[in-house]
Write a structure and sequence with these properties.
It comes from Capsulimonas corticalis. InterPro entries: HTH_LacI (IPR000843), LacI/GalR-like_sensor (IPR046335), Lambda_DNA-bd_dom_sf (IPR010982), Peripla_BP_I (IPR028082). One of its GO terms (molecular function) is transcription cis-regulatory region binding. This is LacI family transcriptional regulator. Pfam families: LacI, Peripla_BP_3. The protein is an alpha/beta fold. It folds into three domains: 45 residues, 434 Repressor (Amino-terminal Domain), CATH 1.10.260; 129 residues, Rossmann fold (3-Layer(aba) Sandwich), CATH 3.40.50; 136 residues, Rossmann fold (3-Layer(aba) Sandwich). It has eleven helices and twelve strands. The strands form two sheets. The chain has a six-stranded parallel β-sheet with strand order 2-1-3-4-5-11, with helices on one face. Strands 7-6-8-9-10-12 form a six-stranded mixed β-sheet, sandwiched between helices. The chain is elongated and about 80 Å long. The N and C termini lie far apart (76 Å).
């Protein structure tokens, strides 16, 4: 016969309400830690298994949080998803990861969700009107949501945590100029080579302010072989830039390989910097520089904001700005 909350309560001489609070709301601070530990140990030893449907009826919660994210192809988005899973599962909740395709996907491929969750963490969401259109048929207006990311074209309203990668990109370009670079090429996906995109504006404005001509390597195909080929053809057709800034780190890796194909050395011949903070950039030879968004810190803050919003729906919205991190490594330091 299945073990119930009442069985655990009798075993520990506690009220059923106390046991229910521990098992259904593990994040709650209203129960003493020692009591929580007793209840959780007894539940485990007695073989208690929660009934999610009954739990939802009692608590008015589904114990599920959604992560809305454009895709999981980039390593930084994968890091964010992994960190979210750790945070939310640590709280005893389930995580639904939803790939939204809201930046590079075709309109007909964008997901429209009609099922309910307790809260949402939305990573680099599109502008408000586009998000509203995407969710037009989903009854989600009242569901707590926290936005997380770095986009500058989004109106950061409500609860959010963001990192200013545009400032980080400007710092990186200024560094390359300070290292003596006279030609700095910017490797950017098609569609993001426009005003209003943070990295594009930072690169273009900084180059023009320095009296330099911007050079764009615009990518229609974002597969690594195609990026490698595009970078190689650009250098062959336009000559060698002495600096390269890449819109995100996977592009940096492909461009690095293209430079090696052309017998160009990093950093002796070309300095190179990426963006987003891919964890394995430092394991290249030479280690590759990057402007990083601290994924785990962003997720930790987003989860704190979402928990507060779920507990206090009427609280004032809160926005948090987290500093970028410029990981300066050998790839962007000119030999002396």
């Amino acid at each position: 016969m299945a073990v119930t909350i009442h069985d655990i309560a009798r075993e520990l001489d506690l009220s059923a309400m106390t046991v229910s609070r521990v098992l259904n709301r593990p994040e709650s601070s209203s129960i003493a830690p020692a009591t929580k530990e007793r209840v959780l140990k007894a539940a485990a030893s007695m073989g208690y298994r929660p009934n999610r449907h009954a739990k939802a009826l009692v608590t008015k919660r589904l114990n599920t949080v959604a992560l809305w994210i454009d895709h999981l192809h980039s390593s930084v988005y994968s890091q964010i998803a992994h960190a979210c899973r750790e945070e939310i599962q640590r709280a005893g909740l389930q995580l639904e990861i939803c790939e939204m395709d809201w930046h590079f996907g075709k309109p007909e491929s964008q997901r429209r969700f009609e099922w309910m969750v307790d809260g949402v963490i939305a990573v680099d969401p599109p502008e408000a009107s586009a998000l509203a259109a995407l969710m037009a048929n989903a009854p989600l207006d009242h569901i707590p949501r926290v936005n997380l990311g770095s986009a500058v074209s989004v109106a950061w309203e409500g609860d959010y945590v963001r990192v200013d990668l545009q400032l980080g990109a400007r710092v990186a370009i200024e560094h390359l100029l300070g290292q003596g670079c006279r030609r700095i090429a910017y490797v950017v996906p098609a569609g993001l080579d426009r005003s209003g995109v943070g990295n594009y504006d930072a690169y273009t404005d900084t180059m023009r302010a320095a009296g330099k001509v911007p050079e764009y390597i615009v990518l229609e195909d974002l597969s690594l072989p195609a990026v490698r080929d595009a970078a190689r053809r650009y250098v062959q057709g336009h000559g060698q830039p002495d600096g390269v800034f890449c819109h995100y780190d996977e592009l940096t890796i492909a461009v690095f390989r293209a430079l090696r194909d052309l017998n160009l050395r990093v950093p002796q011949d070309v300095l190179i910097v990426g963006c987003e903070g891919n964890e394995f950039m430092e394991y290249f030879d030479p280690p590759l520089s990057t402007v990083a968004m601290p994924a785990r810190e962003l997720v930790r803050i987003a989860w704190e904001l979402l928990q507060n919003r779920m507990e206090h729906p009427e609280a004032e919205p809160k926005g948090v700005l987290v500093p970028h991190q410029f990981h300066l490594r050998q790839s962007a330091i000119a030999p002396r």
